[in-house]
């Protein structure tokens, strides 16, 4: 168990949390929650609705509350006067696709189209473009949004939702749930339209009753609902204040580096719809090693290099209640990803002819259960610079960086993890379910380019090792 936890500590600290936290601090990725002392944010999805949206706007006006509406493009098209009214009354308008469909069921290009079409509708009504996007059911497929034209949109999720799309929840229960979450910084998700799948047409009626009570209570407590753009701006300001200027510069440099890295080294993703492992073919540059199957790995040989997905690891971190839970999720994901990876490798002649699966990590014993061998890096420039790099990152970013570093400095050693490609194929290609394999094949055929230029959130696992200089 100790090893497991240690493994976890390294992965989560170095590969997931640091970049994850940085990107979130600066709001580059998904926004869920703000900060502030008296401000919270009301957000309304799925509208506008001819029946309920006018009532909602009246109510907000009465309490001088500003909100953010994530409108469905087709609904906006049908009710332009309501969109105009939202705009005129000082609310922010965001996008919630053109039709209310989950992004999982759409190709990335289609999602982009949906967003742009809705943006156009909003623009034609208000004369202003939208920069905020909330995917239906909060299902984020970041691939869509990093594509050139979609990249200007900021994704906004929420910190609290209440089941207000069901009528049977009733105004009383809804009020109670909402009051529990009525705190500064919270982003409340509500719906001003009940015609989407799974909702009840008259559910907004209950929502409006509950909302009025909540607005009354908010007034009593001196809390004010503000727009999401204001909340994001305020959060960025307070975050910047908390971090010393010198660190801020370093963090920004790191972000630039990360972007360059991902643009320069086009990585492929094992499962583009739920990224966990990324890989690319490259030439091995380290010392000669005898692999498990007796084959010698030498400088210049092709290897398939692995990277973890930071976004995914970060989500494991925030969603899990304990470190053990994170570890279990990591292990399950690894088990799930190795068979499709084996299939992808089999289908790619370049990768199939590579000698080994290769990665550099701080993991010492964990990977062995998956068939990896763990090998010390030669104590050269690469090893030294990686150590320095991670040390540096940790001390800059991690709140208890220095003390943790001292505690674990003995184990803070980057090692190579290796598995012969033949072993990968033998061990995992047979186990992968046929269905899953078909899915993978389908998705890569469908969008052959989309794993390439889309992922900006790859693991830090070997970034510090590229070339032979530390990253920053
Ligand atoms: Zn929705």
From TrEMBL:
Keyword Transmembrane assigned: yes
Species this chain originates from: Paenibacillus mangrovi
Molecular function GO labels: hydrolase activity, acting on carbon-nitrogen (but not peptide) bonds
InterPro entries the record matches: Glyco_hydro/deAcase_b/a-brl (IPR011330), NODB_dom (IPR002509), Polysacc_deacetylase_ArnD (IPR050248), YkoP-like_dom (IPR054467)
Annotated protein name in UniProt: Polysaccharide deacetylase family protein
PROSITE patterns (UniProt xref): NODB
Membrane-crossing segments per the record: 6-26
Biased composition annotated in UniProt, kind: Basic and acidic residues: 440-453
GO biological process per UniProt: carbohydrate metabolic process
Keywords, sorted A to Z: Membrane, Transmembrane, Transmembrane helix
Region feature (Disordered): 433-455
């Amino acid at each position: 168990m100790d090893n497991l936890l240690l493994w976890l500590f390294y992965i989560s600290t170095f590969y997931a949390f640091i970049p994850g936290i940085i990107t979130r601090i600066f709001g580059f990725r998904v926004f869920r929650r703000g900060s502030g002392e008296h401000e919270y944010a009301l957000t309304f999805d799925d509208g506008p609705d001819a029946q309920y949206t006018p009532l909602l706007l009246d109510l907000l006006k009465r309490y001088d509350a500003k909100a953010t509406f994530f409108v469905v493009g087709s609904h906006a098209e049908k009710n332009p006067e309501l969109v105009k009214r939202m705009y005129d009354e000082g609310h922010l308008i965001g996008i919630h696709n053109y039709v209310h469909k989950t992004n999982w069921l759409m190709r990335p290009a289609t999602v982009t189209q949906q967003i742009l079409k809705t943006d156009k509708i909003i623009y034609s009504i208000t004369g202003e473009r939208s920069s905020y996007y909330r995917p239906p059911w909060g299902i984020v497929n970041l691939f869509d949004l990093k594509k050139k034209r979609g990249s200007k949109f900021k994704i906004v999720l929420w910190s609290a939702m209440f089941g207000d799309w069901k009528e049977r929840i009733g105004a009383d229960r809804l009020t109670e749930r909402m009051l529990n979450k009525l705190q500064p910084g919270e982003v409340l998700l509500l719906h001003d339209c009940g015609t989407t799948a799974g909702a009840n047409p008259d559910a907004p009626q209950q929502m409006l009753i509950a909302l009025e009570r909540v607005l009354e209570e908010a007034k009593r407590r001196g809390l004010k609902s503000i727009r999401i753009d204001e909340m994001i701006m305020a959060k960025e300001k307070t975050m910047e204040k908390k971090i010393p200027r010198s660190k801020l510069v370093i963090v920004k440099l790191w972000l630039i580096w990360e972007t360059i890295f991902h643009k320069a080294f086009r990585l492929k993703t094992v499962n583009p719809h739920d990224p966990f492992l990324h890989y690319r073919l490259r030439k091995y540059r380290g010392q000669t090693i005898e692999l498990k199957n007796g084959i010698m790995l030498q400088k210049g040989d092709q290897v398939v290099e692995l990277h973890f997905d930071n976004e995914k690891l970060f989500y494991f971190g925030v969603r899990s209640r304990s470190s053990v839970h994170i570890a279990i999720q990591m292990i399950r994901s690894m088990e799930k990803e190795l068979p499709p990876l084996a299939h992808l490798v089999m289908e790619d002649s370049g990768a199939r002819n590579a000698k080994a699966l290769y990665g550099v990590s701080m993991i010492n014993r964990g990977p062995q259960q998956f068939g990896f061998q763990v090998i010390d890096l030669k104590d050269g420039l690469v090893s030294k610079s990686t150590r320095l790099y991670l040390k540096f990152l940790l001390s800059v970013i991690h709140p208890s960086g220095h003390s943790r570093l001292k505690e674990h400095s003995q184990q803070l050693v980057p090692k190579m993890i290796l598995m012969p490609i033949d072993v990968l194929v033998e061990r995992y290609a047979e186990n992968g379910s046929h269905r899953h394999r078909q899915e993978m094949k389908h998705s890569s055929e469908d969008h052959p380019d989309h794993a390439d230029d889309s992922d900006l959130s790859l693991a830090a696992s070997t970034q510090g090792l590229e070339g032979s200089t530390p990253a920053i």
